[in-house]
Amino acid sequence: xxxxxxxxxxxxxxxxxxxxxxxxxxxxxxxxxxxxxxxxxxxxxxxxxxxxxxxxxxxxxxxxxxxxxxxxxxxxxxxxxxxxxxxxxxxxxxxxxxxxxxxxxxxxxxxxxxxxxxxxxxxxxxxxxxxxxxxxxxxxxxxxxxxxxxxxxxxxxxxxxxxxxxxxxxxxxxxxxxxxxxxxxxxxxxxxxxxxxxxxxxxxxxxxxxxxxxxxxxxxxxxxxxxxxxxxxxxxxxxxxxxxxxxxxxxxxxxxxxxxxxxxxxxxxxxxxxxxxxxxxxxxxxxxxxxxxxxxxxxxxxxxxxxxxxxxxxxxxxxxxxxxxxxxxxxxxxxxxxxxxxxxxxxxxxxxxxxxxxxxxxxxxxxx
Amino acid sequence: xxxxxxxxxxxxxxxxxxxxxxxxxxxxxxxxxxxxxxxxxxxxxxxxxxxxxxxxxxxxxxxxxxxxxxxxxxxxxxxxxxxxxxxxxxxxxxxxxxxxxxxxxxxxxxxxxxxxxxxxxxxxxxxxxxxxxx
Lengths: 368, 134
Ligand SMILES: [Zn+2]
Hints:
By secondary structure, chain A is an alpha/beta fold.
């Protein structure tokens, strides 16, 4: 069954529907005319539906579409200076391949975009945010003392921070990876940003944000700090980062910020109307599940643990309103598909979700 | 009239940085107070200006479901603003928006986007107050 067709309840009669886009692209290049036409139709269907979802997600204009040329994808970055105004994108100050400038924020943004592109391409064979070579643009110095960074559907936007709570937002590679991953999620599972699906959306950004940093530093799971946003908190704040994936709830404890409220398991799940139903709070639970899987498997977290999570984010059977339990089930099924149902990878996934209380010990048979 | 605004969320959703503020025009000419202890008396002109930014007739007609759709399709990690208007006759209505929805609000009820900008500036004042109390 075609992944896209399945999600949208279309019927499918073609083997081409079960083939991933890269294989279809090869068929377009090397197949018989009949095969090529079928592959093109399958790609066209895929692309049009993806476009629909991207438009709905305000992901902005896509690039030319799925690259069927077979050429090696290359990153295409442009960094703009918004000049502390609320105008985007601002003035282009560094293009792809240009040497570093005197502005550290420009250079950090350039590097962070490249690090994120590299992880997705080299490890998961994903060609940019939309998997179709979307050029990566970023504006630095947005607004005055702006305490945030975000992907607006077309580009990255970085504030300078107020220097009181936050430093400049380009300082943390994992935060850049986090924000760009929101673009990836919007193009794939498009998890609704509310409640548990919203916390999963946040967690996926933390997972791949952390993997961007680990891949850049070539750190194993044991060597990584598993912090999100180390260096981003201004001097004088009592804290090491925004979140800890290894030990949720321990990233900061400060008279101004308060104490890190992230739960490490379902027993401490926080019910709230604020922050879209606690998306930045309850993400601690799936964050820790990923950390536990990566630690149990050892080695580089982006390899097996990251692959299982990537397979799940791009799994079109994952509902956009998925609960933690539904996501856990899909990670287990994807671990079984890729590594085998009796594999250590699948066992690590089930153990992790059990440890954070998303899968009950007695219910593990249900997802076996 | 009393306007309450609560800011939450942002890139980290720090619990100590949730702003829960009220602008009370019964305290002549107007006063902002935040649950963490911050207060600011508004000058007469500012109180008048802020009050004019809210058109109760239009505000009470705003459909939160439409705003939620707009918010869902926008960027992630933004600050969430819950804005409630309490009328002297007991009527109350509240809306939820992100900090980048000023233009949307301005289109729905002229002045409301500017109120959001004003609330954002007030949140920065409250932040400075909280940091000063440390
Ligand atoms: Zn986020």
